[in-house]
Amino acid sequence: MKNLFFIFLGGGVGSIARYLMSFYTQKLWTVNSFPMGTFVVNIAGCLLIGFLTSYFLKADHYLKYFLITGFCGGFTTFSAFSVENYSLWQNQEYTTLFLYVFLSLILGFGAVILGMKTQELI
Q: Residue 91 and residue 65: Cα distance in Å, rounded?
């Protein structure tokens, strides 16, 4: 139960950090219609989750739940997606890796379109 509390706290802090970093990045660094704010958040989140995962690899410490699951999860789920892909690559599960990346991108994009079209019908 204590771990859930740390995940909750980290998620809130990560969400606020995502908003602020994305907002100010987009405001200061606009490249046409490229979503620079989200891009920077996703890459920064990947760097951070890679570092933290390596650091806490064998630790069952509350900071692991606060920082990795909570903060990084609130900051960007793209970081979790990327670390899972790295794990598949490291385990030489290339077919699963390709399938996961391909389906996540295509079905994710399709789900957004479907959700938006569904909302338009209501």
A: 24
The answer to whether residue 107 is domain-embedded is no
CA gap 122, 111 in Å, rounded: 17
Low-confidence ranges of the chain (pLDDT < 50): none
| Coil, strand or helix at 31 | strand
Number of domains making up the chain: 1
Tokens standing for 33? 């219609």
Alpha carbon distance 47, 60 (integer Å): 21
Nearest one of 75, 83, 114 to 100, comparing CA atoms: 83
Which pLDDT does position 89 carry in this prediction? 96
Instruction: Please tell me the predicted confidence (pLDDT) of residue 35.
Output: 83
DSSP three-state, residue 30 = coil
Residue 92 backbone phi and psi in degrees, to 5? 60, 35
